[in-house]
Structures are given as structure tokens and as C-alpha cells.
Amino acid sequence: MQASRAIVRLVVALLVLGAVYLGLAVFLSRHVPSNTTVDRIAIGGMTPNEATVTLKRVLAARASQPVYLETPSRNVDIEPGTAGIEVDLDATLSDLTAFTVNPVEMWVRLTGGDDQPLRVRVDRAKLTAAVTEAARAVDAPVMEGSITFSGGRAITVVSVAGQALNVPETTDAVASTWPGQQVVRAVMTITQPKVSAAEINRAEKEFATPAMSGPVRLVAGRTSVALQPMQYAPVLSLVADLNRTLQPKVDTAKLLAVVRAAIPGVERDPVDATVSLVAGSPQVVPARVGSTFDMLTVPTSFLAALTSQTRTAPISMVSTPPKVTTEMARGWGIKEKVSTFTTQFPYNPPRTNNMKIAAAALNGTIVRPGARFSLNGILGERTPAKGYQRAPVIYADRLEQAFGGGVSQVSTTLFNAVFFSGVRIEQYTPHSFYIARYPEGREATLSWPDVDQKWTNDSGFGILISSYLKGNDLTVTFFGTKKWDIEAVKGPRRNVVQPKTIVDDRQGCVPQSPNPGFDVTVTRIFKKNGVQVRTSTFNTHYRPEDGVTCTTAATG
């Protein structure tokens, strides 16, 4: 019986103690632990409502203040309301007053708390948008500085570093420090310019300003002239090297152009040796060495003068050899007449004009040993700009007016000089019908650009071509070293075809005299010391030249 009573008393005691423990837990859940602060605001011992009122009162002003984003160039405000950040008091106090029967936690609450963090609600999308908008206000591209020279002065642009706000990291910084920290240092990415502002300032002081401070005196031999900054500014530049140091540079081509304009007549072009006719005989005209400004030393001398006390630039000269030396010209062996041929031409002033222009272009041409000759290459296109006039040419077996008519007689006369010189003939085209003033089978027409006369000088010596008109004669002569005695043997006409008679009433009609068509063979015989060495043949087919009577006067 007594044992039963003891058990009852124990149970009652335990129930009382449990009730007391539970009551204490309830009490502790309705009060903030003593000595507790939130973000350094004292709320220990207060009920949740009292703590909420206190925190709202103290934090109201702080939470409404903008966040100041601090960047190297400026500060930018972010309003908490529009940025989606606000204080979460319920979450802050829930950890301090939540009901618990954990004895350890209850003991902590009985003995006192510590400073607790202030919980914040963050709308990440809004805050990111606000920080992104702030970035637009502070981001700036890198500005590369430079020093340029224009108008006789140096123009300096100082370098400025670029900056870009790191939006994700800055957003994290704002979210983690607000509202306890009103000023937040933005996380920035800084891009340095290739050339620093300090280097720009150094180059300006040490080179650019002195370079433009006054004239530079150029001295070439006995010639001296002052070059003004306005004249030489365009040739200068400052370029960064691998160490990002600005180095002065000179545009050599521009500098030489400026120097040549300032002191003309000092340089002398080299003159190639050549061969020309003197009193009808070929004579070597000696080469002449030229002299020009030294491209290697002139820029260096000029740069040094820009920062020197004397501001004087000595201009060195170098010799420029000719491409053709006197020895080379003598080695061509142009010493005697090799071949010559003359044709007569009818009275036709426009045609004679064209022949004079072509003969003058051909005259004096030197064909070196082994070189290939092209008559179209010498004359080029026959145009009015060159002075050529309209004269008769053969087109589709009919005479027509065209610029350069008559040049084919120059070609034919040249062809015969080629023929009798013995050099290798590679391309020629006879006229489509036979023209009586030319030798049968030994003539060559010409038309731009495809119908050409080409040959290679395989004589082993140079050839000087002389061509001129005198009276009604056109003569082409080759001078060189005679290698062959050439004879021409013409065979009889074959396959003779008689011409037709045509009456033409077209404007621009050109009358024609009838001539038969035929085939003919010419043999070229190469002899040396009277002995035949070899031969070559030229077969020519002429179509008949129809007789044309024009009922309307020719024009053009």
C-alpha cells in the first residue's frame, strides 16, 4: 500500500514538473531571449509583437534609404522598393520565438542570446534588373589614347581605362549587405588601354612637343633649306612597341617626297646606256650613274633633328647605277647594217599621218639578244588620243575607214627587214588580198589586239631598228652584227581566181581596183660565205580583190 502511494506521488511530481517545463517552453516562445539583438538593435525579453514594433520603428528609415553603388567613376542609387528587396521580420523573429522543448535551446533562451542577422526577402529578377540599369550608367569602353601630327602641330588624346559593372556579383553584394550597409562597392571589370595615359604624356613631352616646336634644316651638300612643321607633320607618327612604349616612326616614302619638293634638282636619275645612230652609223651612248637620297639614313637623321638643339638634318646621297651599263650596250654588238627595206606609199594625208606616228614609235627600238619582239606591243592600240586618223583598212575583203589605216605598211616594211636579217619569225598575217606595192608573199598586216607581228632575235647580237618616212618612201633598217646573207626566191602564182565587180551605194563605201586571187610560195635562203646553209618557206593564199564602184561619195 505504501509503495503504491509512493508511485502516485512520483507520477504527480513528474506531471507537475512536466507542466512547469511545458509552461516554461510556452513562456520562452512568447519572449525574445534576453540580451538578443538583430542587426545591433536590442530586442531581448520582448514579446514578438513588441520586437516587431521596435524593429519596424528603427529600421523604417534605414530600409527606405537607397543603396549607393560605389564605382570608380561615380555612385549610382538603387531604390529598394523598385529593386525587389525588403526586410522580412517574420522570418527574422521566427528563429527566436519558435516553440521548442529542446532543453539545450531552452537553456540558450534562458541564459541570453546574441546578435542575429536580419532576414531579407529578395526578388532576384527585380534586383538584377536594377543593377543592370545601374551598369548602363557607369559602363564605359576603353579609350585608346594617341598622338597624331597634323597642320603643323601635335594632337594628343589621353588614354582612359574602360570599366564594366559585373551584374551577378554586384547583385550578390547588395543582397547580402542590405540594409545594414547602405554603401556597396560595385564589383567592376577594368580594361586598361594598350598605351597608358602616363606613356601618352611622356611621349608628348619628350618627342611630340619638341618635334613640332620649329623648322628643321635640311642640308644636302651645299644646299640647305628649312622645312616647316606644317610640311613634315604628315610624315610622322607614334606607334606602340611590344612594351607598349610609343616610338616615333617616319613614313619614308612621304618624307622623301617632302624632301624632294623642298630641295629639287639635287637628285639625278641614272641614264641607261643605249645605241643610237650618229651620221647614219650605230654608236654606243654611255650610261650615266645617278644620285638619290639615301632611304636608310634620311629618316634616322630627320628624326634625330626633331629633338636636337641644332634641329639640323644632314641628307646623305647614294649612287644609283643604271640598269644597262656601257659594257652591256657594247656587248650587244650593234655595229653595222644587217638588213634594210623600203616601200613606196600613195598620196593619202590621213594614211601618211598614221604611218609617221607608227614609224616614230618603232624608230630607235633595241631588241636585245634572245628577246621576243611584238609590233602591237610597241605601237599599242591605234587611237585618236595618240593622233591616229581614219584611213582605209581591209575588213572582210573590203576597204573601210578606221583609225590607224596605213600602219600595215609599216608592218610590211618591218617584216621584210626581219626577213632579210635572218632572225626567227614566229607570227605574221598576210593581207587577205594582194596589194601591188608590196612583194608577193612577203608582207604582213596588223590589227589591234590579235593580228600581230612577232619574232625572236636569235642572231646572238642586239638589233637597233631605224624607221622613217622620206618623200613617198618608208624605210626600215636593222643594225647589229650581220650573221646571214639572205636571198628570197618567189615561185609562180598558183590557183588564180578572178575578181568580181561590185556596185555599192552605201555611205562610207571605199572604191577598190580589181585584182585576182592566187597562191604563192616564197623561199628564204640562208647563206654564209656564199654557201647555202638552210632554207625556209612561206606559203601565202590571197583571195581576189573585187572591183568596187561606189555610187555615193566615201565618207570618213
Question: Globular, elongated, flat, extended or rod-shaped: what is the shape?
Answer: elongated
Major sheet summary line: 4 strands, antiparallel
Can you tell me the residue ranges where pLDDT is under 50 for at least 5 consecutive residues?
none
How big is the Rg? 53 Å
Mean pLDDT: 87
Beta content? 25-35%
* Helical content band: 25-40%
Give the N-terminus to C-terminus distance in angstroms: 159 Å
Description of the molecule:
- With about 550 residues, the chain is an alpha+beta fold.
- The chain contains 15 helices and 36 strands.
- Helix 2 runs antiparallel to helix 4 and helix 6 packs across helix 7.
- A hairpin with a 2-residue loop joins strand 13 and strand 14.
- The chain folds into three domains: about 120 residues, no CATH class; about 130 residues, Ubiquitin-like (UB roll) (Roll), CATH 3.10.20; about 220 residues, no CATH class.
- The strands form 14 sheets. It has a four-stranded antiparallel sheet. Strands 31, 32, 34 and 35 form a four-stranded antiparallel sheet that branches.
